[in-house]
Write a structure and sequence with these properties.
about 45% helix, four-stranded mixed sheet, about 260 residues, alpha/beta, homooctamer, 11 helices, five-stranded parallel sheet
């Protein structure tokens, strides 16, 4: 649409139906959306191959099913995060997306209808305790649907350091590591001090009392004295995975 | 004094000058302080050998000098914490307490005029970074004036785990360990997971931004998943040392 | 396993199949886990006789039953904390752990299949109000399964000081005291000022409004002007009991 | 002015120059200030004998001197709170208020130029530590210039309960008690549980670390389980004193 | 009991069976509870006529019924606050306390089995909005069972100032006023500026968003620039009523 | 009533039964309510045409139905906000207000029984995400029942800037814009920098973790570096709409 | 510059040197800045007559002088906010801006070198206490340099309601009111309930203790139950004034 | 040293002076530091070419000079962050490090004595306002001494979107972007929505009032709805730069 409007304008200039000054004036007032779209297309081109994403909380089941359908029909892969099981059931009942599956621990719906180009390298997703697994699972599902291979290393909290040290080689060979931890969240600092790659820290809301729903782990991670540790929102396995996948793609593509 | 008042009353009962009922009534109204002192004396007896302590902030120099003098004159050891250097100068100028010394890193004034019975065991005071040293020093000065021997192990933060692991044997042989750490405060958890003795964690106000003056380290330590870790107030090296010394005395005395 | 790998390497050196320099290089790259395990074993040896512990929140019932079974089969005592009654029912239905019992006030599952060596001394667990009892009960169950005898002293809040003073002798004879209090949490300071042993303070989430889920009691306890008071996380009766038991064991063993 | 305007209107009604309906309409639209002043006067009458008060922070020395002068000239007693010494010097230099004095510990300027009617009863102002004295002093100066007699009972914190119990009789005879305490602020609860009169609790900013500038003491006092305890702002000795003086006046006047 | 023990001791002194020194020693070690009870009795005497109170949250229904029964059997009036309707039903089913009634808006159970001496004066309980009524009702029920007459003035928030001003005379004649307000809590300041008696401010958890469960109203009230305003915990109608009743009793008794 | 009382007084003055001075005195003491009402009427006159509003939370269904009926009977339009569907059902069952309708997304009940004078201009209500729609809907329903036309522009969050820029012309022509956003709430700043009219920012509680129930969006909006942005409470679409409608009315009326 | 680049491109199309498709492609890649500037210009046109503004904190004196000079040379009016007196002295010393003046109470530097079109209406700026004056002054200076006339009404806090009511008529006639208040910040609600125009509330950091640097006033204002009240950042008199001036301009221009 | 100890042990095995079993036992008890150093060396090897870093706050000038000297003598590059100018002067006076320079805006001391391998790609460091420059400068100095080339893009805050859009191409071509912003911190989200590479967000303490020393910007960035945004501590330009440099090195090395 934007192209057409712009072309017509330029044709008018070419034909002399519109003076250059008039054209300048008209261009100034073209709705931003059109010009903006150019940016959007370019932008999307770079991100090609990534799934469309729906963040479910605050949306009604009807809204989610509708958005899911619209995105799926374009042929893209679709990821719905923080989805209750009943959302998946509603999507299943439409019978249109037989391939859609429910990743229960991650509370995610995944529709993989376009082949993925799987990464060469593997991102370790390290988690301190069993209760942190749902957040780690969200990170894993997200990375995988972006084509990024992952390995889940679990139950290696700082209170049992030997278990962590047993995984050291894997960690020291990684390009980027996702660390998922609640309670005191010290794991990110400890790992950050042992490796030379960036560490993406995901505080979780696991804990009670003075964990204040993840605030404790969040502050710990932000104050990490190990440089190279960056932090995402509490329980935000999704964003950690997107960041890690973006990094790894850059690395595999050589920038 | 209380003894005298009580004795007189009992003598009156004995002599018949006072009926039993009258005595009961009088005893009910004896000022609590007198009865309370009995408790106090007993209490002090248990704590015998400990120094008198002055917490300086919020007191004027004049007040501190006066309290210091009063306590010192009883012959006890005296410890003044959080004392600015000018407080020490004011005390020095009185020329009465030639033995008083200023422990600069700990900001403490120590008057040791009564021989200390030195403990057999040593309490490790472990600290993450150079900036945490003043708090560790306060703990050390406090423990030492209580007769508790200590060893300062410094600069073993979690971001350089190998330095910590190099001290492991010492830590595993201790009866109790004081851990002093700011920023993310993860050191207490890591040590708590490596040893089988109680760990007293002292969060410090070292850090900036989201350390929120020590809040981050405090929350980390409270949320430690390593059981056996207890926490004192931010920068409170004094209380950590008192607790450690009380414990060790119990251990050396066998309860 | 680690031993085998190391032995073979040393045999090769001995036989001359491997030069010293090659061996040094190989040793540098031995996975940490192996070396770490030596530490672990030593560590466990010290902690011998303690139960295995499962913290239930955030774990599915299936996960808990599985972990419980795995730990129980080693013949150890097992403690599952913060367990809903339905978790206990699921464990009961496995019919494998007939000895397992549910401690309802403490919300704990206890499997005592190995004889306990009961401590000589008794730890007072003091609680301010009836609503603090579940946290005190968690502390009691935890200490008892560690072999530490306890005595629950309840309903002695600071608003009725005479009840507390009536228990003074018991408190003054203890080696360590656990104080459990919500709302304003002042009890820890008051007791801390009356005794000469360490006090472990457990703030509880009992209260409303400006108690902010236990924050008020936590801050009060951290700011206690009675030295010798250390604090654990809100509602963390478990960690207080572990600390107290570790201390008392040290005392009975003489360090 | 208001009186004049109203009188003229009523005169017009009297003379028949204005109908009753017209007068009603005019009265409806009289500026509120005039009618409001009637209220003000009445109000002031009730509060008669109280000093005029200036809260100094945020005002320039020039502004304070000007306001002080204006209030003093009406012949009332004047109290300036939170006044730096240089403010008092500026007021002294005006040479107009020779009677004005500077209460250094309270940081208050007092001008007592009208005789006070001194109360029969005495309000105990109890304070936990030496560092709380400035706030207690502000309360004392404020109460005294309102005619309310006070007695300062200091250094009776909960960590030395026997000293407090020694003052019990005085406290149990009071009509109202002001309790000033920083750090953990437990004193208000303890006293509240020992007496049957209202307790006004003043948290102070004395402390460090997790005292968070008085927040800890404030929360403790708000959560007091001793009913009858009400709380004022951190360090607000002034408001506590005003409340206590208002109460006592009511009591002495029999309502 | 304590009396007996003390009398016997004094009788022994009188008879010469016990020397004065022995008696002094014995008295020192009398359990505090006994001596404390003297204090307690005296204390209770002052508070005579007040009801026994049970704060229900955190207690099981069984515990509440048991405590209720125990207190009721002494013949006292009993007040159970924050009681769910099912608690009342459980008490009703015991059929022992036919007089017990459930005050639904206040969520309180009241057993009035001893005649009340009703106060001469009336305490206005002013509330800003309909949603604040439960807290105001708790204050009202509490005051009434203490014999204190009250009048509920509702829906006079600062956003409709004229309604408040219409009640001004009543407020200006009161001895003490309870103000109950959520959201911005400004009502306490406004009333505090219009009257010359103490104002007890009760912040409520009414509101949403940045009211942070009553924190906003609490801070507003603590920062009131109208001196004479003191504050209780969020939603604590009970404590406000106790304080007001204590004050009024003092006033009616003339101190 | 007030009129009558005032008229009688003036009649007395007219007749000479009351001197002017006596009348002045009597007028001073007329209850505020009467005089206040004059103000009220005038005030209401200005606000004429606006609906009566009921904020439902914290009110029982019975209370809401009663208030709704009372307001509706005066013939005004009525708006009940934050109303659960069952409230609407209760109102429907009264059969008196057949015109009342339930606006589900906004959770509002609207009774439009008086013709609205619809505004000429349109207020854009811009929202960042689907989950913010309920708050935007509350703003829309509120504005519309005040006669203010609106246009909802949704799903134009800052993470997809081109969609926002496509709406730029509409925004730049508005007199005032309402921006509704949760999570990071950056939309208000971005729009504020693109337009020259006031922007009313409504933070929403949409988000998780460190959004702290809308606190993050609230702080973002308060710190906007784009001048001309003002903020209302979290989720307070109602107040934003009232403010916008008041502004637009002023503009259409020329002040 | 942007114009030139665009013109040349269009000339090339006109001449046939560039095909329409090539031109479309080129336009897509024109740096955004150029197209953006069109928007900027248009935007600025709307805001014409407003001063350039420099927010001083965090900038060095050298930076401020340089920016001030650059803006002043374009012939616009310039406003520098939060400027220390030494900044003004540095600007004075450049001798270039003789007209620049320092508004001391507002801490603002004003250069008025272009005639202002003064508004017909007046914005009341109401302030609770003397200490709030600097923030009110910032609002006043800002509004005036935007051509908006203002009237400062001060010292009308809610604790002296009659003074506020005396100003009621002025307030009820305003198009918009700025309310500046610290401490409990209740003034905004009270005024909001008395008037029918929008109220812009500015919380100030005036206060101590639980005012938490303005947080208390901020929360109060956000929770105002008087609809039509919107809030800006603590101490942000500038933004309040800009918003008020934008509104009034719209009103005077009829939208 | 560790090498020597290990070699000797292996030589003993080779010579038969030590049995394999004895050697295993000895190796188990080698201090961890030695074994740890193996890890450290390997680790350092990966990080080769990076500077040694000193974080200055909390260290005395004497301590910093000493540490600086020790690190510098190893021939490495040294970076001292958050260094006051007087620290640099003290280092200058040692006359040993003539090459050391002071980067004033970044408050950093840089000693570059080893040639840097400069990166091929450039990291954009984008900053919202002039006051954010010191943090951006710290990031820039840090990255540059790690060999990472950077470009500072400043003053492109969201309130002037066109300036940002003018830099879009540069941003869209980057491998990673550092965004530095205070106040509302919205810039990170806006950029995150426009690019497809990871964005490292640095909240700054720039702002006032409800910016709460950077908390507002921190929360905004954590809540960013643009995936791929990770966050570091407030004002932590250093850690952002280290992370970005680590990433870019990986990319240039192809993992």
């Amino acid at each position: 649409m934007q192209g057409e409007q712009l072309k017509q304008l330029l044709e008018q200039v070419k034909k002399g139906d519109l003076s250059v000054d008039e054209a300048v004036e008209k261009l100034r007032h073209l709705p931003y959306e059109d010009l903006g779209f150019a940016c959007l297309d370019h932008h999307r081109a770079i991100r090609r191959g990534f799934p469309e994403v729906i963040y479910c909380p605050g949306k009604t089941i009807e809204q989610i099913v509708k958005i899911f359908g619209a995105l799926a029909k374009k042929g893209n892969n679709v990821l719905a995060t923080r989805a209750d099981e009943e959302v998946f059931e509603a999507i299943s009942q439409t019978t249109e997306f037989a391939q859609a599956r429910y990743e229960k621990p991650a509370r995610a719906i995944v529709l993989e209808q376009k082949p993925l180009q799987r990464s060469k390298t593997v991102v370790p997703i390290v988690t301190a305790g069993t209760a942190d697994l749902p957040v780690a699972a969200e990170a894993q599902v997200t990375a995988e649907i972006m084509g990024q291979r992952t390995e889940l290393i679990y139950d290696v909290g700082v209170a049992g350091l030997h278990r962590l040290l047993g995984q050291l080689e894997k960690l020291q060979n990684a390009n980027v590591i996702i660390v998922v931890a609640g309670m005191e969240g010290a794991l990110a600092s400890v790992i950050g001090g042992l490796v030379s790659c960036p560490v993406i820290a995901v505080p979780t809301s696991v804990g009670y009392g003075a964990s204040f729903e993840g605030l404790s782990a969040l502050l710990t991670m932000l104050n990490s004295c190990a440089a190279g540790v960056t932090v995402v929102n509490i329980d935000n396995g999704f964003s950690a995975a997107v960041t890690a996948a973006l990094m790894c793609r850059k690395i595999e593509q050589g920038g």
